[in-house]
Amino acid sequence: MRFMKFKNEQYKDQLRKIPHNFAVVHDEENKESTLTIYGVIGDSWWYESTSASDIDKAIAEAGSNNLMVHLNSPGGDAFDGIAIYNRLMNHKSKHNAKVTIHVDGWACSAASVIAMAADDLIMGIGAMLMIHEASNIVWGTKGSMRKEADLLEKLEDGIIDAYMTKANVSREEIRDMVDSETWFSASEAVEIGFATAATAKEDDASGELAQLKAQMQSMQNELDQYKNQQIEVPVNKRPWRFF
Questions:
Q1: How confident is the model at residue 229 (pLDDT cuts 50, 70, 90)?
Q2: How many angstroms separate the CA atoms of 5 and 22, rounded?
Q3: Rounded-to-integer distance, Cα 120 and Cα 197, Å
Q4: What is d(CA 35, CA 231) in angstroms, rounded to the nearest whole number?
Q5: Domain ranges of the chain
């Protein structure tokens, strides 16, 4: 298993606490299947997890439906993540279907590869996406370790291929981000091209903030007008002030 091993240990406890939840709902009337993928990716000996086989079965049952995926995962097995990515891409190609992925919390490591299969990748408020080097535990001779290092490099090349289908920066920049382990907020994921949008609520909040700023500016203009005209404002009609 090529698995997650973070350089940045800041979030490791939260990531381990993501509860496993794999659920599938097929809505034949609207021709849409909803998949919920929470927790570890791959076949794990230590945790409940969601494997590529689980996803393959769910997609086969979906027929030609569009897919809606809710994702919240710390990652897991790189090869399972790649297999799920390719299964989603194949479904789109075969059925001319749309895949929408909502990152509800985390899309880290192998889960970030899955996220690249989305036509629309929507980051929730506070959601994060993380990319990093592949890793493994190796025991044996120096020759075995060199072979494993070569394999990990080839694995990373394939993963970067998936990132480059979305990224609007150079391959060298993405490789540097992989090597250094890089975390993206919702807005940063949109900026680099990985995500297509942040959640609609975030957009609404931005609109409300802009409206509030406009109202405050209007009040300030009125105050300035009073000052310029040197008008004494009655005490019971003084405008509000914000501190």
A1: low
A2: 23
A3: 8
A4: 64
A5: 9-198, 204-237
Q: In Å, how far from its chain's centre is CA 31?
A: 25
Q: How many CB atoms lie within 10 A of CB 149?
A: 12
Looking at residue 151, its pLDDT comes to 84
Q: Residue length, the chain?
A: 243
Instruction: Determine the pLDDT at residue 43.
Output: 83
Residues 159, 78 contacting (CB under 8 angstroms): yes
Count of C-beta atoms within a 10 Å radius of residue 237: 6
Pairing relation of β-strands 120-123 and 197-198? parallel
pLDDT digits (tens, 9 = 90+) for 50-68: 999 999 999 999 999 999 9
- Structure tokens belonging to residue 196: 């297509």
For residue range 7-24, what is the model confidence (pLDDT) as tens digits? Answer: 545 555 665 668 899 999
Among residues 8, 16, 20, which one has the least CA distance to residue 130?
Answer: 8
Give the H/E segment covering residue 122: strand 120-123
Higher pLDDT, 172 or 203: 172
User: How many angstroms separate the CA atoms of 207 and 190, rounded?
Assistant: 18
Q: Which CATH superfamily is domain 9-198 in?
A: 2-enoyl-CoA Hydratase; Chain A, domain 1 (3.90.226.10)
